[in-house]
Amino acid sequence: MARLEGKTALITGAGSGIGRETCLLFAREGAEIVAVDINLETAQETAAAARELGINATYAKADVSKAADCERMVRHAEETFNKLDILFNNAGIMHGEDEDAVNTDEAIWDLTMAINLKGVWLGCKYGIPALRRAGGGSIINTASFVALMGAATPQIAYTASKGGVLAMTRELSVVHARENIRVNALCPAGVWTDALVEWRASQPDPEQVDDYLNRLHALGYCPEPAEIAVAAAFLCSDEARFMTGAIVPISGGSECGYKL
Ligand code: NAD
Predict the structure, then answer these.
(1) Which atom of ligand 1 sits closest to the CA of residue 142?
(2) For residue 37, what are the β-bridge partners?
């Protein structure tokens, strides 16, 4: 039997990369999908691709840094499917001008924090009451390996935002455990998505980035987003019922040591 049969999942950042692949995998596992993105067209495309897999899927446009949008996306999920069981707070940005502490502009810091950190909180602020109404559920937050070891390439705002996601995940997991709500975090390293391709292009020497990425992953390559989606599917399935507050690296061993 499909592992997510009967469950309704809301995924942010669903228009691209990890979010899109997770929507499609969740759909293959039997879940009803609410694909949310700041980009309406790509959210719509992901929902259409999920429907082609034979499940019910809808979409919503939301900027996760805006409270009203997060409230609306959750309301849309409940109005469409009568409940919400899974919340994947995945939307995030890696800004090309996010640099070291000295050279990063305040506006880049504020934007990164608003989407990557406040966005996770807002997802929970409106998502948790919906999970309660469903009798419990599962939250997954996308963090990053940089929250475990710091980034060699400086991205001060991104690293700080993802550290905050891990701290929030731990607190949420304890506070909501007795409500049958599990909260876990994923820590990918590099993943070949639009975010990484754009960030690579913004670097002074993109070919040096390729070398860095290959060395970064002990397993020797930078993965595709589908290789991250499998961990999300496991964490919100009933097989992971005793996992909460887990910080799950899915990073090819990146944080274990640097391969020379
Ligand atoms: P991506 O750029 O392919 O997808 C991100 C999606 O989020 C896009 O569709 C974008 O439109 C959407 N988005 C951006 N801002 C938004 C907002 N304010 N509200 C709603 N949606 C918004 O990137 P990805 O690599 O799939 O990133 C997904 C998550 O994975 C992010 O949190 C990112 O930080 C994290 N991550 C990525 C990597 C990597 O190397 N790609 C590594 C570690 C962690």
Answers:
(1) 32
(2) 61
* Alpha carbon distances (Å) from 24 to 111, 192, 223: 29, 17, 17
Question: Over the stretch 55-73, which tens digit does the pLDDT of each residue have?
Answer: 999 999 999 999 999 999 9
Torsion angle (degrees, nearest 10) of CA 110, 202, 141, 118: 10
Distance set, CA 124 to CA 86, 87, 150, 165, 248 (Å): 11, 8, 26, 12, 19
From atom 5 of ligand 1, which residue's Cα is the shortest distance away? 13
Q: What is the rounded CA–CA span in Å between residue 36 and residue 122?
A: 14
**Whether residue 18 has its Cβ less than 6 Å from ligand 1:** yes
Instruction: Give catalytic status of residue 158 as yes or no.
Output: yes
The pTM is what? Answer: 0.97
**Do residues 112 and 157 lie in contact, with contact meaning Cβ atoms separated by under 8 Å?**
yes
Residue 91 Cβ contacting ligand 1 at under 6 Å: yes
Q: Which of 158, 212, 221, 258 is catalytic?
A: 158
Do residues 43 and 115 touch, judged by C-beta distance below 8 A? no
Q: Kindly give, in sequence order, each residue whose CB lies less than 8 Å from that of residue 81, ignoring residues fewer than 6 positions away.
A: 8, 32, 34, 56, 58
